[in-house]
């Protein structure tokens, strides 16, 4: 029994993105599956540069008629199971940028008051306190994300820790948040090893992926995750068949001290393939 507990502590976990398809089940169902240790709510797609922040959870609910406040009970039930629930900011199709130090501070204040431990009369997801913020920054000039990370991290002094996670592309260093990742403030970094042929799995070979994984282990962060599409059609390229992942790729990565597990895009695609269930015992 003691050995089993030790193994469990050292085992990796699976992170999933939820919120971009109404045909992926509820947040509560996602956490009740027992497949995931982290859930990223996707996305706060508009913020910064003086814009009114806007969250987009596809067809799940309408935040502008206070229709997403009911997610509070699901968030709390996820957290009661030990699952960390993050708000993912950015995304591939968002309208976002930070234009100054002041802008970064204003965005941090907004996130704290509306999603984390602060107070606001207009909390889009209700009164549940999320565990932290996920940086899925895929555009812009790459500036001031380090400042946003510092401001958000500073709120940890107010009580509950604010976890910081990020989803950079696998080319190293990341063009947008490479600087922010140097701060050492990020707890988990799930790297997108897909839609990036030079550094991903292709044609049955994981050589490029493993080479870039070694580069990523140099960043000052707690744990890094292998980010993958959960189905062949979840991304343009980079899908790894289950058998190859569990027999070849993961054994090569798990020997690194910063290995944290696997991130999957997304819950909708995972529902169709059962990818997380198929790999869970090997992660």
Automatic annotation (TrEMBL):
GO molecular function, a single term: endochitinase activity
Domain of life: Eukaryota
Gene Ontology BP term (one): chitin catabolic process
Catalyzed reactions: Random endo-hydrolysis of N-acetyl-beta-D-glucosaminide (1->4)-beta-linkages in chitin and chitodextrins
GO CC term, one of those recorded: extracellular region
CDD domains, A to Z: GH18_hevamine_XipI_class_III (cd02877)
Domain GH18: 12-283
Coiled-coil zones: none
PROSITE patterns named in the record: GH18_1 (PS01095), GH18_2 (PS51910)
InterPro entries, A to Z: Cts1-like (IPR045321), GH (IPR017853), Glyco_hydro18_cat (IPR001223), Glyco_hydro_18_chit_AS (IPR001579), Glycosyl_Hydrlase18_Chitinase (IPR050542)
Name of one Pfam family that matches: Glyco_hydro_18
EC number: 3.2.1.14
Keyword Disulfide bond: yes
Family: Belongs to the glycosyl hydrolase 18 family. Chitinase class III subfamily.
Name listed for the protein in its UniProt record: chitinase
């Amino acid at each position: 029994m003691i050995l089993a507990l030790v193994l469990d502590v050292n085992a990796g976990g699976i992170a999933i993105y939820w919120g971009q398809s109404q045909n992926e089940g509820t947040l509560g169902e996602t956490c009740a599956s027992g497949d995931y240790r982290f859930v990223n709510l996707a996305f706060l797609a508009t913020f910064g540069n003086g814009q009114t922040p806007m969250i987009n959870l596809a067809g799940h609910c309408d935040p502008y008629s206070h229709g997403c406040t009911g997610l509070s009970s699901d968030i709390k039930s996820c957290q009661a199971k030990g699952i960390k629930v993050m708000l993912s900011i950015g995304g591939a199709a968002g309208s976002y940028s930070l234009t100054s130090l002041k802008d970064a501070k204003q965005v941090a204040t907004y996130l704290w008051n509306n999603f984390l431990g602060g107070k606001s009369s207009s909390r889009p997801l209700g009164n549940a306190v999320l565990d932290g913020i996920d940086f899925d920054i895929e555009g812009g000039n790459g500036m001031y994300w380090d400042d946003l990370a510092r401001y958000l991290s500073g709120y940890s002094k107010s009580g509950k820790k604010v976890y910081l996670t990020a989803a950079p592309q696998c080319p190293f260093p990341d063009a947008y948040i490479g600087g922010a990742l140097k701060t050492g403030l990020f707890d988990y970094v799930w790297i997108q090893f897909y839609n990036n042929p030079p550094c991903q799995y292709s044609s049955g070979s994981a050589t490029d992926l493993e080479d870039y994984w070694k580069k990523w282990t140099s960043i000052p962060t707690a744990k890094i995750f292998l980010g993958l599409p959960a189905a062949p059609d979840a991304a343009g390229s980079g899908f790894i068949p289950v058998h190859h992942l569990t027999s070849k790729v993961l054994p090569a990565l798990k020997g690194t001290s910063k290995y944290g597990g696997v991130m999957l895009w997304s819950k909708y695609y995972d529902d169709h393939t059962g990818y997380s269930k198929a790999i869970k015992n090997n992660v």
